[in-house]
């Protein structure tokens, strides 16, 4: 009988903080169906644990999260059935944004596309200065539809327009200036800065802390649910189109897509 697969997401609780670690470095912590499922389970466990005051979301390897698992998407387009039980991206982002406990993203490296959605969904985000970011969707023939919901709530309009439309990479300093990050710090200070934030959360009365998070998020709750539904339809339209198929092929073949000038 084969051994059970190693988990792609690991959880640990210490001194009132649940640390959830994306542990799929072989594909840069891409948001595969199994990783999404395990991440949702760990988030639910942290929320249900009365000893947990706050949640830290981080990753292993050199990349925080590369976004969607393009190989999995290609397999689905080729006829392989998707996991019907895996949470969708709106479910995952909502689980973070609507969690009653604060979620702190502690980046270990770059984030791309849907991975930036995780950063934006978190209440607080700390990244090393060496980290980079990019909304690569437009360069592979799709639209940053679903992630636009949490990201547009964080980033300033001008920077959001530039980076959504060009797909260009930007550094952690620019991400902080644009509102995506709480702060960008020297690489060797990420742990210490995050720990100071967590120590602050540990000093708070749990009920007051939870209600304050709800206060910060409640104004856009209904609009967010409707936006996720609309953006889900837009995302499915483009991911199922010819441009997306060409974009994935170009990505895997390491060549420019046919539309590149």
Strand and helix layout:
Elements: E1 9-14, E2 17-22, H1 33-48, E3 54-59, H2 70-77, H3 89-97, E4 103-106, E5 111-112, H4 114-121, E6 124-128, E7 132-134, H5 148-152, H6 157-166, E8 170-171, H7 172-178, E9 183-185, H8 190-202, H9 206-217, H10 221-239, H11 242-253
Parallel strand pairs: 2-3, 3-4, 4-6, 5-7, 6-9
Antiparallel strand pairs: 1-2, 7-8
Description:
Its EC number is 4.2.1.18. This is Methylglutaconyl-CoA hydratase. It comes from Spinactinospora alkalitolerans. Belongs to the enoyl-CoA hydratase/isomerase family. Keywords: Lyase. The protein has helices at residues 33-48, 70-77, 89-97, 114-121, 148-152, 157-166, 172-178, 190-202, 206-217, 221-239, 242-253, and strands at 9-14, 17-22, 54-59, 103-106, 111-112, 124-128, 132-134, 170-171, 183-185. It is globular, with a radius of gyration of 18 Å. A hairpin with a 2-residue loop joins β1 and β2. The strands form two sheets. A six-stranded mixed β-sheet has the order 1-2-3-4-6-9, sandwiched between helices. The mean pLDDT is 94. α1 (33-48) runs parallel beside α3 and α3 (89-97) packs parallel to α4 (114-121). It has a domain at 9-188: 2-enoyl-CoA Hydratase, Chain A, domain 1 (Alpha-Beta Complex), CATH 3.90.226. With 261 residues, the protein is α/β, with parallel strands linked by helices. The termini are far apart.
